[in-house]
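Hi R.,

Here's the chain you asked about this morning:
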Amino acid sequence: MEDLDTFVLRTALHWQALGLPVVLVTVARTWGSSPRPPGSLMAINALGETAGSVSGGCIEDELIQRIREQGIHTVCNSHLPAVMRYGISADEAHRFGLPCGGTVELVLEPVSAHSRLDELLACCEQRRSTERVLNLASGDVTLRPGQRDGMPHLDQQQLTTYLGPQVRLIVIGASDLSRFLCQIALSLGFEVIVCEPREEYRASWQLPGTSLSSDMPDDLILRLQPDARTAVIALTHDPKLDDLALIDALQSQAFYVGAIGSRRNSQHRRERLRTHFDIPDQTLQGLHGPAGLYIGSKTPAEIALSIMAEIVAVKNGITVAAATAVETGKQQHETVHDLSSGASGCMV
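And the predicted structure, written out as tokens:
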């Protein structure tokens, strides 16, 4: 499954190929509370069909109505980009479903060959972070290498936005837990690759939207060279499969590297990596294990939710201290339980 930005670009290109006038709408700036962050994309064609969103729905409804009644180029005032602002007053905020005081500024861009959406889509598919500069006076677009998560910038001359690689999850091991984890990841717009060299596990894997690799995990990690938009999670419980992959992943740019296991097994894993593979403590600090946030999970589906929650938190820059890691959460839970029951034994 592709992420929302890629879906919007691909849909806009499809409509353009069918000969339909299309406008690409970008959230350029927001003030106060807003349903969608700057950089969010939506495409609308002349029939009023949409892909993506820029609000909770009310702004989209108003834009669709205006485009149907006036046409895309009239709404944009010409064949050139136009800037529109919604939610300036409290009345408008209520009318368009924005939180009170919230304001969103949009750039409406009639899609043409000058938009270079085909090149931008190719950059995203090739995992190349790209800076896109739209000239508001001419509609011309410049593409150049840039950071994936840069903040959009709008001034009187141009709109600068940043797009790039779809966030990716590499799962080591095909199991029931893997299946639930992959389903959640796909629903969140992750590209999902499952690595399973064991034929008996690989034979029963069936989940549309995922890629299945029979490579040894460390070989796959070395081949893919995880970038800063990639997370790696080891789920096999087999050190022969997990450890070498984790070593290579920890030395890559991956934003998240994790492995399941009890607190005792996780400690043993760190000792193995430190003693037998000379992995320094500083590098080992990047290993999330036991993986996940503490939610009292028991079933494979709940454990998958716990792990995916931690991956998303790290992707969004939320520190584990702001949430609760599995190890810390279990310790706190056991402490509370022991105090309430009067237990005095040692915790595992």
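DSSP finds 13 helices and 15 strands in the chain.

Let me know if you need anything else.
M.
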